[in-house]
Amino acid sequence: MFSPDLVDALDGSDALAKRRRAAADRAVAAGQPSFTEEVWRYTPIDDLDPARYAFAAPGGTAGPVGLMSGVDDGAAAVVHIANGAVLDVSVRADGVRVDTLGSGADDLIGTVTPEGPDVFGDWNLALASAPVVVSIDPKAVLTDPIVVHVHTDVEGLAWFPRLVVMAGRTSQATVIEHHTGGNTPALICPLTELSVGDGAHLGHVTVQELGDAAWQIANLSADAGRDANLRIGHVAMGGDYARARIGIDMTGRGGHSEIDAVYFGRGTSTLDFRTFQTHVAPHTTSDLLFKGAVDDYARAVYTGLIRIEADASNVQADQTNRNLKLSPNAWAESVPNLEIENSDVQCSHASSIGPVDADQRFYLESRGVPTDVAEALVVRGFFDEVLDALPSEQISASVRQRIDELVSDADFTAAL
Amino acid sequence: MSAPTAEAAHTLRIEGLHASAGDTEILQGVDLEVSSGRVHAVMGPNGSGKSTLAHVVMGRPGYEVTAGSVTLDGVDVLSLAPWERAQAGLFLAMQHPTEVPGVSAAQALAEALALRAGDDGPSDDQLERTRSLLEAEAAAVGLKAELVARPLNVDMSGGEKKRNETVQLAVLQPRIAILDEIDSGLDIDALRACANRIEALTEAGLGVLAITHFTRVLEYLRPDEVHVIVDGRIVDSGGPELAEALEADGYTPYLPEEPDAGVAVSIGGLGSTPAAATGASAPDDPFADPWADPLDELG
């Protein structure tokens, strides 16, 4: 898809350059993915024409505030990245360090994801032109979030944002990644690595509000240490095709993780989620809740796998995906999977796809609430539990307000 | 029961009502009339169509009215959407109240009351007043305040849901309330509390159509008239003594092999009782001031 020679123009340590070369070779060998592969099932990946995009790092200016209103004001650190280049880094609190390419943290790139997890992940390692490494000191307790804004508004640009979060032992922090974009076509392939040290509490939220011509193929991988507590939130509101692969490895005994996602597809958008809850260590738990709505001609795909490895006894893992279909032309698919190699575990998965519940609507109508208001209340109520679960109250509030706006002027009756 | 002043009286009139679910005709010609301040009990065995009657009058999807009419003060109820029926003054206390995740009673009722007051949507102040009303009414039927603050009916026991229906009824102050087996799932104390609250509302002018399988609730609700429904028709009507007869003999005398089964009886409610003052604390038209002081309302 891209030339491996592009690697030579990038900064960084010699060791990183060598790893970039190897990653590019892997990516070239893998070639272009096809929807006939299970991991790309239900996706429009065959529509991807790499010739329409050019890799570059022109930089630019910061994107709109969007759903992040007020969040930067009290942040522990704020980073702006745009069109392949770091614009500025501002660290305002003790206990957190932010490194960019060549500033001494290059070796930390690939800590959680040394290769893959797919061809775009390998291209990311090869071509990450503006990687950001956030290191939280052991025992540091950061009450305010670390915010990374990622903006894309150059037409036809292909680039590879990379964020590495190293949460030291027993530290506490929240990192918010905010993706914005213009209305021109672009290919953005972010990769995020979360290394959660023993006993650390890490929250991470992705807020995706890309323009409606953008293709996003994102990977997020996390490794939760002993007694670690990891809370991942994902908000997906835009993009022509926006994919997020989220994989968590529960490698430390006693670790707990939650993944909560909110999505609202409109227009002709396709939102694609692949999740992997992998339990390697015993006495670990993971809880996943994905709730989304599709309106207009939008599509949503959820595929999730809970994998319990042979040594992982005393594990509890849950997975729930619920979809509201708000238009007759909208489409959603939900495919939960379990793969269990240890019998001493408790696992559950559940999924649903359907219109606004007719009984709920009738109940509210029977109190005197007009049909459109009743439906808006039901849709807002549908999202309530997952919004409450996001690891940032500020993001919960702004997304709740956005959903209120989206449902208050919509007419869902046609979907029924 | 006493009826309110003539100008405040409202009448729900059901005439020759036939309704089907799928290919099955469930209501086969129901005639009933319920007016302000009157309590009518409709009793019948399982499968007699009594819950269908409640659903059809409120407009639940899934039923088709094939003949007959339902009017409230002369207005054709059947042509209205369910919410318009509620705004016109009907209320259905459901047998199995639906859980509505993420939506509180205050949110829902404030929307309904704002619309009734002619506003676009509830202000923060109206939401707060609705919340206060709900809490006061919850206390009146022994429901914990935190339960009415929860998403509607979520994680509530059967009895709590029924009390919650009574709470919403009292806050909305409809003209005519249909109670679909309000007694099921309620213990005796809760039943007494709910029935007392509803009785107070009838004294202030509420008309009640109470659908029930058992006579127990009628000891507290004290109906003016009792109707027996069998196979989708009202087969007998009378005073409270009819409920006593049912308690003693069951529904057997009304089952299809009985020669007198299948006769529709029309019951007139309006004008058969003298008008009476309703007292200063009860507004003539409960719809006039939906956010009246809850302490007044509780009287």
Order of helices and strands of chain A: HEEEEHEEEEEEEEEEEEEEEEEEHHH
Portion in helices of chain B: 25-40%
Given as residue ranges, the uncertain stretches of chain B (5+ residues, pLDDT < 50) are 261-283
Helix content of chain A: 10-25%
Strand content of chain B: 15-25%
Work out the strand percent of chain A.
35-45%
Summed up, the domain count of chain A is 1
Class based on secondary structure composition and strand pairing of chain A: alpha/beta
The largest sheet of chain B is: 6 strands, mixed
What is the strand tally of chain A? Answer: 22
Can you give the mean pLDDT of chain B?
86
Biggest interface and its residues per chain? A-B, 23 and 32 residues
Distance between the termini of chain A: 43 Å
Biggest sheet features of chain A:
12 strands, mixed
How does CATH name the architecture of chain B? 3-Layer(aba) Sandwich
CATH H level, superfamily name of chain B: P-loop containing nucleotide triphosphate hydrolases
- Overall average residue pLDDT of chain A: 96
Count, helices of chain A: 5
Rounded to an integer, what's the Rg of chain B over CA atoms?
A: 18 Å
Short synopsis of the structure:
The complex is a heterodimer of chains A (416) and B (299). With 416 residues, chain A is an alpha/beta fold.
Word description of this protein:
The complex is a heterodimer of chains A (416) and B (299). In chain A, helix 1 (14-30) runs antiparallel to helix 2, helix 3 (358-365) crosses helix 4 (371-389) and helix 4 runs antiparallel to helix 5. Chain A is 17% helix and 41% strand. In chain A, strands 1, 4, 5, 7, 8, 10, 11, 13, 15, 17, 19 and 21 form a twelve-stranded mixed sheet that branches. A ten-stranded mixed sheet of chain A has the order 3-2-6-9-12-14-16-18-20-22, with helices on one face. By secondary structure, chain A is an alpha/beta fold. By secondary structure, chain B is an alpha/beta fold. Chain B is 33% helix and 22% strand. In chain B, helix 3 (105-116) crosses helix 4, helix 4 (124-140) packs across helix 6 and helix 6 (158-172) runs parallel beside helix 7 (188-203). Chain B is globular and about 60 Å long. The two termini of chain B are 17 Å apart.
